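User: quick one, fold this
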Amino acid sequence: MSTVIPRSSILPLSAVAVIAAAALLIPWWGVSLSVQVTRRAMNAGLALPATAYPSDVFLSLLAVGTVVALAVTLRRGPRRRILSIAAAGGVVIAYATSEMVKVALMQARPCTRWTALTACDATGYSFPSNHSVLAMGAVWVIAVAVHRAWATWTAVAAALIALSGRLFEGAHYLHDVAAGTLLGLAVPALLTAIAVAATREPRSAGVSPASALSRSPRGPDPARDARPRE
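Assistant:
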């Protein structure tokens, strides 16, 4: 994995993935954890009107960062460019998958149940969150293309702000954001892994020095050379 992203970048990405998986899988007694967190986030959003903007702002910053990161790969070797393009292609596939799941499940947004900070898009569907897919997909592309831990950590922080904003706005439930997060990470990571396997150089079938010495032709053995010398 360290050949794809720095080892120090694995920690924030793994932490986000584990928290997202926990939000989807951990059972909750009474009212679901997702509903409780979403309802409280929406109440907090009503008390803080400024939360209507960070989600789109930071998602836009991540989009710009992704473009810059892909441009950086133009100065790198062909293998790094291939890995970055594969990661970006994974984001496109993840987004398309998210749209298909939305249409299939047709889950209503939480703002149709409770008062939200912004105008509710009742015609849109909630599960999974496309913002989460794009935000975490951008994080993965930046991690692969830039290959610097500071860039990954910065992108993760921006993505978390964008994801939280969707809860404050009442556009998504917690499980929508969690599912979008996992989808946005998993698909680009899978395509990157395929690109790694496809571009891996085959190991040379060279002969070790010891075996080369053992197989090297020997000169005539004087003790066994029965021919008379002239």
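User: anything notable?
Assistant: Helices lie at 7-25, 33-47, 54-72, 78-105, 130-146, 149-169, 174-199, 209-215.
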